[in-house]
Amino acid sequence: MTHTLKTLMEEYQLPKEIVAIAVNTLGWYEIEAIEQMLSALQSLLDSMQNPDKGQCATCTSTKLSPEDFTDNLSRREFTISRMCQVCQDKVFGNEEGY
Question: Is 59 found in the same domain as 30?
Fold first, then answer.
């Protein structure tokens, strides 16, 4: 399939500006990376628009019960970013033991 901004916009249901940034950042030769980026953005936007969907905004994990988080700070971060504990640890680092 030949990818264009229009086909990527339609496939990922994202605004033209977001798709254009992805293409300009990575170039058309990195179409797989572009599609992964757009898919992640689409998941993030979906989770922001549907906060009760019950999935992590970045990896779609459903381990989002209060007991799945290591502490109150992580639970609070979830209400802001919608990231599960594993993704929070990847983004912010696991500060256990400090």
Answer: no
